[in-house]
Structures are given as structure tokens and as C-alpha cells.
Specification:
The chain has about 250 residues and is α/β, with parallel strands linked by helices. Helix 3 runs parallel beside helix 4. The protein is globular and about 55 Å long.
């Protein structure tokens, strides 16, 4: 029986790296993608040496059409797609450079949608496949100071929920991963400093990846690691929007 083959974007660090590591430990061949050449190549060698899998490396910037084209052109026969690549930046929308915010939309929404469309069709042809789209706990809120990021992650969650229903009858499952505060390189890029509460509620990145893979394998529609994070969807439904905005604004200051 042939091994599963997975494509993981944003695999040079953080959640993407840990997900790739777990898949390799499950004897899954990999195609890993990121912008950072040395980190990705070193990680690939580590996985090959430790687990004896096949691991292909694609260096690509998924904020560009060319980067997405590169993956689609060079990647076939995928059983598992993990759309992990993404970033956020903290600050008032009108005061931040627009081009950087548009890059966020290109990566968090456009690239994810293109890759999902391409590889879901390949999976439908085979009658099986699993897709994991990394959203965020931010998908459940509107975030002053984090406006575009929260909006992109709301898209990822809504899109993934709908696709889960559309594709399950065709043998393909879609899981939205909605992590809360995870200590990775994300905070440095976003310009965030974690509060005491955020540190308490944070979940180790390897644990997030472990929960994510288990949920994906079970075909779950969405998963939110961390017991302290789970009440958030219910809390947001019960809290008036004016109060939500005040609370989130204070948290993100």
C-alpha cells in the first residue's frame, strides 16, 4: 500500500513545522513549502533522516500569484493538504501600510482558496482526501487594531465549514483549525506582546499540532485547542457587539 502524501504550507516554523513533523512520524511523504530556504531544507533533511520518508521542498512566496502557481505546477497526487501559511499585523488599519495588509489578504485568503480549489478537485477524482485550513480564535471576533487579520480568519472558518458540507459526500473532509494563543514566531511578525492571561491560556505548539492532526483524521469540521479557549464562540454570541469591541480593543492594546 502506498504512503499518504501531504502538502504543508508555512512549514519552516511554528504550527506548520510541528504538523509536518507529526505527519512524517505517521509515515507520510511530504511536500513542504515556505519562503525561508535554509530553514526548510534543514527541516527536510531532519525528517528524511529520522523517519525515512520522501520530503520535497518548494521555496515560494504565497503572497504572490507566481508562488501559488509554483506549488500547483509542481505538486500532484496529494492526499492531505494543510493550508497553514499566514500572518497578521497589529495596528490601526488606516495607519498601517496598505500594501502589507493586501499581502495578508493575498496569503490568508487568496492563496488558501486557490490551493484548496486545486487540490480538492484532485481529491474528488480519487474519492478521498483531507484538507486542514488554519484559521484562528480571531475568526470568532471583530478586532480593533487587528481588523484585517480577524476578517481573513473569519473567511477561512466560514469557507471551511461550507466546504466540509459540500465535499464530505465526495470522500473529502475539511477541518478548520482555530488555535488561540500559541507561542510561535507569529507574535514577533504581528508586533504583539502576550498578556498574563494570554500566556496562561496559550497551548504549546506541539500540542496544537497533535490535536489538529487527530481532529483532521477523524474528519471533524473544526477544532479549537485549549480548554480556556472553547467558551469563546458561545461568549461572543451572548455578548453585545459594542461590548465585544471594547473588550477586544483593550486586550489588543
Amino acid at each position: 500500500m502506498s504512503r499518504e502524501r501531504a502538502l504543508v504550507t508555512g512549514a519552516s516554523s511554528g504550527i506548520g513545522m510541528e504538523i509536518a513533523r507529526i505527519l512524517a512520524s505517521q509515515n507520510c511523504d511530504l511536500v513542504i513549502c515556505a519562503r525561508r530556504k535554509k530553514e526548510l531544507e534543514d527541516f527536510s533533511e531532519e525528517l528524511i533522516d529520522k523517519y525515512g520518508i520522501n520530503c520535497e521542498v518548494i521555496i515560494a512566496d504565497l503572497t504572490t500569484e507566481k508562488g501559488v502557481d509554483e506549488i500547483i505546477k509542481n505538486t500532484k497526487n496529494i492526499d492531505i493538504l494543510v493550508n497553514n501559511a499566514g500572518f497578521g499585523i497589529l495596528g490601526d488599519h488606516a495607519e498601517m501600510p496598505l500594501d502589507r495588509q493586501l499581502q495578508m489578504i493575498d496569503l490568508n485568503i487568496h492563496a488558501l482558496t486557490r490551493l484548496t480549489h486545486e487540490f480538492s478537485n484532485q481529491m474528488i477524482t480519487k474519492g478521498r482526501g483531507r484538507i486542514m485550513n488554519v484559521a484562528s480564535i480571531a475568526a470568532y471576533i471583530s478586532g480593533p487594531g487587528f481588523a484585517v487579520y480577524c476578517a481573513t480568519k473569519s473567511y477561512v472558518l466560514s469557507y471551511s465549514r461550507a466546504l466540509h458540507k459540500e465535499l464530505m459526500k465526495k470522500g473529502v473532509t475539511v477541518t478548520a483549525l482555530c488555535p488561540g494563543y500559541v507561542v510561535t514566531g507569529f507574535q514577533e511578525v504581528a508586533g504583539m506582546k502576550l498578556s498574563k492571561m494570554e500566556k496562561i491560556s496559550s497551548v504549546p505548539v506541539n500540542k496544537v499540532a497533535e490535536i489538529a492532526i487527530k481532529s483532521m483524521r477523524k474528519g471533524r469540521r473544526e477544532v479549537m485547542p485549549g480548554m480556556m479557549n472553547k467558551p469563546l464562540p458561545l461568549v461572543t454570541k451572548m455578548t453585545p457587539m459594542w461590548l465585544q469591541l471594547i473588550i477586544v480593543n483593550q486586550i489588543l492594546k
